[in-house]
C-alpha cells in the first residue's frame, strides 16, 4: 500500500515506514534512548529530504518520550526543579536551532550541514561509548567492580555562581552549567532531530553526579517539552513537518518500544552500551559514506519561489 507524503512530496510504501518506526522503537526501548539519531538518517537514506526528516522526527520523539516521562513522574524519579532549569536553556536552544535551520535552508546548505553534523556527532559518541563499554566488560570479566569516573567537587564548573540545591538529585551546583547543557540539547534537537537523551543522560551522571534513575526521568521530560516546541516552531517557521509521516512513525515506534524494553531488561548494562556504541558508529560511518560518494544524480532542479 503506497501513500503520498504531502510535505516530503514523496510516495512511500506505508509498511516500510511503519517497519522503520517499529525497528527504531524496538532499539529505543532496548537501549533506553530516544532513537531520533537513528530515525533521521534512516529517513534520509530512503529519499526523504533532510529538512523534512529532521522536522518530522520531532513529533515522533515527543510522542515516544511522553509515556516514559509520565511513568517516571508517577514513580517520583524526576527532579522537577532540575528539569525546569534545564528547560530554560533547552527552550532557548530550540528557538536558536530553528532559526539556524531556517538560515541554512535560505542559503541552501541544510542537507550538507545535517550530514556533516551527523557524521561528526555519531562518530565521536560511538567511539567513546565503545571504548568505555569495552573497558567495563573487561573489568566485569576480571571480577572487578564497575568504575565510574566523575569530576570531583572542585571541578571548575562547580565553582561558578548562581548555585542551586536540587534535593531529589542530592546535588548542589551552579545553574550556569545546567542551563548550558539544556541549551546544547535544545539546539541539537531542533537542528538534527535528536532528542539528546544519549548526550544528556551521560552529562547529568558524569558531570553533575545526578543518580542514574533520576537523570533518565529528567531527560525524558526535557526531551518531551523541547521536541514539542521544535515541532510547533518548525511547522510555523519552516513548514517542514510532515504529519502523515510522523503519525505512521509514532504508531510503529510505540509498538516497538514495548518489545525492546523487555529485551533490554535481560542483558547486562555494559553489553547494552557496547552494542549501542557499535550501532551509533555504524550509522555515522554510513552517513559519511553517503557524504563522499558520487550521487546517482549529479544535477537536481529545485523550483524557485517567485515573490510578487
From TrEMBL:
<dbReference type="Pfam" id="PF01925">
    <property type="entry name" value="TauE"/>
</dbReference>
<feature type="transmembrane region" description="Helical">
    <location>
        <begin position="37"/>
        <end position="61"/>
    </location>
</feature>
<feature type="transmembrane region" description="Helical">
    <location>
        <begin position="272"/>
        <end position="289"/>
    </location>
</feature>
<comment type="similarity">
    <text>Belongs to the 4-toluene sulfonate uptake permease (TSUP) (TC 2.A.102) family.</text>
</comment>
<feature type="transmembrane region" description="Helical">
    <location>
        <begin position="240"/>
        <end position="260"/>
    </location>
</feature>
<dbReference type="InterPro" id="IPR002781">
    <property type="entry name" value="TM_pro_TauE-like"/>
</dbReference>
<feature type="transmembrane region" description="Helical">
    <location>
        <begin position="216"/>
        <end position="233"/>
    </location>
</feature>
<keyword id="KW-0812">Transmembrane</keyword>
<keyword id="KW-0472">Membrane</keyword>
<feature type="transmembrane region" description="Helical">
    <location>
        <begin position="171"/>
        <end position="204"/>
    </location>
</feature>
<feature type="transmembrane region" description="Helical">
    <location>
        <begin position="112"/>
        <end position="131"/>
    </location>
</feature>
<feature type="transmembrane region" description="Helical">
    <location>
        <begin position="12"/>
        <end position="31"/>
    </location>
</feature>
<keyword id="KW-1133">Transmembrane helix</keyword>
<protein>
    <recommendedName>
        <fullName>Probable membrane transporter protein</fullName>
    </recommendedName>
</protein>
<feature type="transmembrane region" description="Helical">
    <location>
        <begin position="82"/>
        <end position="106"/>
    </location>
</feature>
<keyword id="KW-1003">Cell membrane</keyword>
<dbReference type="InterPro" id="IPR051598">
    <property type="entry name" value="TSUP/Inactive_protease-like"/>
</dbReference>
Amino acid at each position: 500500500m503506497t501513500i503520498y507524503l504531502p510535505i516530503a512530496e514523496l510516495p512511500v510504501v506505508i509498511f516500510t515506514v511503519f517497519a522503520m518506526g517499529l525497528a527504531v522503537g524496538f532499539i529505543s526501548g532496548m537501549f533506553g534512548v530516544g532513537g531520533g539519531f537513528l530515525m533521521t538518517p534512516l529517513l534520509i537514506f530512503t529519499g526523504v529530504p533532510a529538512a523534512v526528516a529532521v522536522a518530522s522526527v520531532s513529533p515522533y520523539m515527543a510522542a515516544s518520550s511522553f509515556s516514559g516521562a509520565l511513568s517516571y513522574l508517577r514513580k517520583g524519579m524526576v527532579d522537577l526543579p532540575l528539569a525546569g532549569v534545564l528547560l530554560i536553556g533547552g527552550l532557548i536552544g530550540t528557538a536558536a536551532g530553528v532559526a539556524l535551520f531556517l538560515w541554512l535552508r535560505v542559503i541552501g546548505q541544510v542537507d550538507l550541514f545535517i550530514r556533516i553534523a551527523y557524521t561528526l556527532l555519531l562518530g565521536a559518541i560511538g567511539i567513546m561509548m565503545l571504548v568505555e563499554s569495552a573497558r567495563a566488560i573487561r573489568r566485569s570479566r576480571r571480577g572487578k567492580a564497575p568504575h565510574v569516573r566523575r569530576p570531583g567537587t572542585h571541578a571548575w564548573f562547580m565553582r561558578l555562581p548562581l548555585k542551586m540545591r536540587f534535593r531529589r538529585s542530592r546535588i548542589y551546583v551552579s545553574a550556569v552549567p545546567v542551563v548550558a547543557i539544556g541549551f546544547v540539547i535544545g539546539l541539537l534537537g531542533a537542528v538534527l532531530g535528536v532528542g539528546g537523551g544519549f548526550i544528556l543522560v551521560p552529562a547529568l551522571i558524569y558531570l553533575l553526579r545526578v543518580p542514574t534513575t533520576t537523570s533518565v526521568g529528567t531527560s525524558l521530560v526535557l526531551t518531551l517539552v523541547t521536541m514539542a516546541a521544535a515541532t510547533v516552531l518548525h511547522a510555523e517557521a519552516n513548514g517542514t513537518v510532515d504529519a502523515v509521516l510522523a503519525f505512521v512513525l509514532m504508531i510503529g515506534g510505540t509498538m516497538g518500544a514495548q518489545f525492546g524494553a523487555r529485551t533490554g531488561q535481560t542483558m547486562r548494562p555494559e553489553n547494552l552500551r557496547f552494542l549501542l556504541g557499535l550501532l551509533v558508529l555504524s550509522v555515522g560511518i554510513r552517513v559519511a559514506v553517503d557524504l563522499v560518494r558520487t550521487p546517482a544524480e549529479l544535477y537536481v532542479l529545485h523550483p524557485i519561489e517567485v515573490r510578487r
